[in-house]
Amino acid sequence: MQLGNVKSFKGVGYVCFLDILGFSQDILENWKAIESNPLEKLLAIKSALPVLSEEVEEINPESSIRSYVCRVNTVSDSITIAFGLEPKLIIGDMALGLEALVANIREVWRAAIVSGYTLRGAIDIGDIYWDQNELIGPAFINAYRLESEIARVSRVVISSKLNKILADIATRHPSTMTDHLIANFRKDVDGYIIVDPYKICNSDEDRNNLASNLQGMANNVSNPLLKEKYAPLISMLKEKSSIGHDQLGAY
Description:
Elements: E1 2-3, E2 9-21, H1 23-30, H2 38-47, H3 55-59, E3 67-68, E4 71-75, E5 78-84, H4 91-114, E6 118-130, E7 135-136, H5 138-151, E8 156-158, H6 160-172, H7 176-182, E9 185-187, E10 193-195, H8 204-219, H9 224-228, H10 231-238
Parallel strand pairs: 1-3, 6-8
Antiparallel strand pairs: 2-5, 2-6, 4-5, 6-7, 9-10
Helix pairs in contact: 8-10
């Protein structure tokens, strides 16, 4: 049984809104470039997203195997990743659905850095509707506003509502599964809970390569204030961190 991504959905779900930083300026300046063409780089980033298929449901809709698949929409340099939850909220589905969402974020983030960009985004949980053409709802609006007004630098923040839900899951339903879920996040210097950049890669070699890419991006920025915005991400990418359950739910 496939959960999270259905043709039409109206209910409670996770929504992540991502913006690819630096792409718009690159398009304006290098649209006709032969080498390092921004359109080709953006298409490469989008190709890193999982190819979603409904064939699993069609082959055996009664299968007891539960797969967790996100719905992904892209418009220019914006990417929305959503996961619809079942009407009866089950802790296991909530945890594994959010794990699937974060895994998608990591894949896009890694592909963006390899291509010479980085991401800024936010995740919310709440009411959402989608069909083949539309994605509408309070959770989408909240994720968009958090990305544009709160995130500010290259990071993916979680909403107050999701933060409180994570705190509740960690406190009331402790398990290896929930511990694994919480390990995807870390607390930033301003108190926001964010997706942990350290987990973008599985090896120190990959982390060093991505950090080198980011440092190269920073070196190409002439404005000292903009250059400094890369420093926290580079630092978090290299430094392993852990978050205590008592650090969740504070906002």
